[in-house]
Amino acid sequence: xxxxxxDPCEVAPELLGAVIRTDVAIRIVEVEAYRGxxxxxxxxxxxxxxxxxxxxxxxxxxxxxxxxxxxWSANIVCWPEGQAGxxxxxxxxxxxxxxxxRERRPAAKTDRDLARGPARLAQALGIDGSFNGISLASGRxxxxxxxxxxxxxxxxxxxxxxxxxxxxxxxxxxxxxxRHVSPYRxxxx
Length: 189
Hints:
Elements: H1 8-15, E1 19-21, E2 25-34, E3 62-67, E4 71-77, E5 86-96, H2 98-104, H3 118-125, E6 142-144, E7 153-155, E8 172-174
GO molecular function, one term: hydrolase activity, acting on glycosyl bonds
Pfam family, one: Pur_DNA_glyco
EC number: 3.2.2.-
């Protein structure tokens, strides 16, 4: 397993090519790093709250949150316990149990769109609020390292408003040319 006690910006590109598995398996092709209280794009920028508490928890757990009043998104918690940090799972390719992923994502027109975006990825995996704070070693969800370095590129995070969404924070990492990577959209300024 990857060393998740490190800076999310170090961990993020190493997650590319890894597999996240529930009863569906997805190869990770796009992620974003969030560095807690030093990162204006992070949910933990203003400190510990009930909502973001899992982000301050032990590394190797999930921080799952509800966004736009309709979607779940999942982050892998990094850094030592007490220091908030995480890597958002932005996009992936379903590699096992396509049938169940399609059931969970009936709006997906193609298999390419099953996990193309953080809410779609969480939905395809069946991740909801009950996964918040759960360990990646729980048996309910697991992370399998890719075993080989994967080529990656980086740039500004998708849809992050303010300073945290600018080129000063090139903490979105993806596998160049992979058709499952989500499109870039800047945040509101």
